[in-house]
Amino acid sequence: MIFRHGSLSRRDAFLLLIGASSMHIWTLIFNARGLDTDQSIVINTHVSQQDALGEFLTTTAVLKVTETKLETMTATVTELAAPTSTSRSLSPFDDLPPTDILAHAPGWTLFRNVYMSNGTMFIVADEASRKKIPEIRMMTSTGLEAVNTPENIALREPTPDNMRIISPEEAKERWVFTSKDANRPSFNRVWSVEGNTLLFNDPPQFLNHYYHFVAELFFGVQAFWHGAFSEPISTADALSPSSATHYSLRHPHAPPIHRAIFAHASADAWRDNPGFNSYFLRAALPSVVVENQVDWDDRIRATRPKTGEPQTDARAWHFSVVLLTDRSAAHRGAVCGSQTQRTAAEAWDFMRLRGKLRGLHVGGWWAPLREAVWRFAGAEEGLEAAIDMRQAKDPDKIVISYISRQSARSRKLIADDHKLLVESLEELVARKNKERADAQPEDVPLEYELTVVEAEKLTHDQQIRMAARTTIMLGVHGNGLTHLVFMKPNRASTVIELFFPGGFAHDYYWTSRALGMRHLAVWNDTHRAYPNKPDVNYPEGFQGDFIPVHGPTVVQLIEDRVAMKL
Ligand SMILES: *[C@@H]1O[C@H](CO)[C@@H](O)[C@H](O)[C@H]1NC(C)=O
Ligand SMILES: *[C@@H]1O[C@H](CO)[C@@H](O)[C@H](O)[C@H]1NC(C)=O
């Protein structure tokens, strides 16, 4: 961006580089050595980050001119080996292995060898390794429902009943039985939960909602899991915003996830009314076994000594590899808490800064789940993805999908404005297709298509197929826009979100940009877009049924966007 006109000298560029705005890349390069060092934790929570993806694009452009520094940096970056997920089952006579923290961002912690007894997570660490453990409040909480009152915020602070750090000696005292008879071996009372586990500490409050479940929880899971087990991209790629790596839909193989545990949610509580959460989970991760609160309670009860019986009857579960996710802890981080309000942003940004996410311009890191859902839904894109050139291409066709909320319970457009919007879009499509019909054979413009979608009238499969074909997704702020995570990325992919004038929320803005797509917020006859995004605001009328929109303005935005003027 800064360099488009080649107006800066190398020296200027270097000065820029050491300015505050390029902190990210320094973090990426100099912090790449240890995912589990103190430093990574401190930097992750304290670096000020304006807009993650924007910064990525500009700072990488700046770094392009510092080639002289490259050689030394490369050596540092390549030292970071991706952890493996090797699962280990303990035998009764094994020593209890200490806990490793493979990766951590606020609300997202990947453990190896962590223990649970009586509902408490136990991290086993000696004095030396304790220093490397993140603050417990950045990993977990009491898992209570969140409301924004000081009392509730205090009640969500974790207690020693939620998580504790104990020494290897204490672990042994608790769960290893040593016979008085010196000839008999000691044996542990620890049972391994083999394989790879997702442990969600979230309350049901946000689980039974398509956006929060898919575009937040599993979006973050995919970024963190995929990132943690990937080798970082090369320094040269990290420094070049136009590198094919940032357009790549190829991704290193990540270890399988075997189970998902919703510790605070009943079987119904993670399922949403339209049924998209379970549709997504079964389509994207068909092998994952789901446990809910009842199962977690079974596990808790199984570890508790019976009243009156000796404490030596206490048992513990040993989790080989577990990704613990906690919504309240994520909100204690800077990226989620003060910039995006998106828990997934902590996971995504952490991995992005370490060069661990492929295909930032096309959501390449998300592609495995997106493609799985496409295939499941019978979207042609699901099969095409496997044979594609795997690059962000020009679109074959401009497919506009207007997701209408006019038959929803609330948050609707003024009826006449909806009517004019549809008419304007129809006029656009007719005009463009006429231009196409009249065009000279050597310069045929793209075909246009419009679908006005009333999601509730379509099956799940139909909705996903609609999203997969969409170039421009348009609609009033709402859950229907969650389908943007299933759009097929190309250079024109855009989400146009209609707000009551003055209103703004980060949900679809952040999510679109995390997938490399353009997001335009429309306020009647004006629009706002990165880097000029509005602040979060819910003015009177935000949830109402009289949201104004000027159809011709939306049409102009679409034309400008397809012409790459926006
Ligand atoms: C188990 O946890 C419960 C609730 O947190 C607590 O009241 C009880 O004392 C604990 N039991 C043991 C044996 O630690
Ligand atoms: C929306 O924009 C149109 C076109 O500029 C204008 O005529 C109309 O008054 C605006 N509506 C509101 C509520 O501001």
TrEMBL record:
<dbReference type="InterPro" id="IPR007657">
    <property type="entry name" value="Glycosyltransferase_61"/>
</dbReference>
<protein>
    <recommendedName>
        <fullName>Glycosyltransferase 61 catalytic domain-containing protein</fullName>
    </recommendedName>
</protein>
<dbReference type="GO" id="GO:0016020">
    <property type="term" value="C:membrane"/>
</dbReference>
<dbReference type="GO" id="GO:0035269">
    <property type="term" value="P:protein O-linked glycosylation via mannose"/>
</dbReference>
<feature type="transmembrane region" description="Helical">
    <location>
        <begin position="12"/>
        <end position="30"/>
    </location>
</feature>
<keyword id="KW-1133">Transmembrane helix</keyword>
<feature type="domain" description="Glycosyltransferase 61 catalytic">
    <location>
        <begin position="396"/>
        <end position="491"/>
    </location>
</feature>
<dbReference type="InterPro" id="IPR049625">
    <property type="entry name" value="Glyco_transf_61_cat"/>
</dbReference>
<dbReference type="Pfam" id="PF04577">
    <property type="entry name" value="Glyco_transf_61"/>
</dbReference>
<dbReference type="GO" id="GO:0097363">
    <property type="term" value="F:protein O-acetylglucosaminyltransferase activity"/>
</dbReference>
<keyword id="KW-0328">Glycosyltransferase</keyword>
<keyword id="KW-0808">Transferase</keyword>
<keyword id="KW-0472">Membrane</keyword>
<keyword id="KW-0812">Transmembrane</keyword>
<dbReference type="GO" id="GO:0005783">
    <property type="term" value="C:endoplasmic reticulum"/>
</dbReference>
<keyword id="KW-0325">Glycoprotein</keyword>
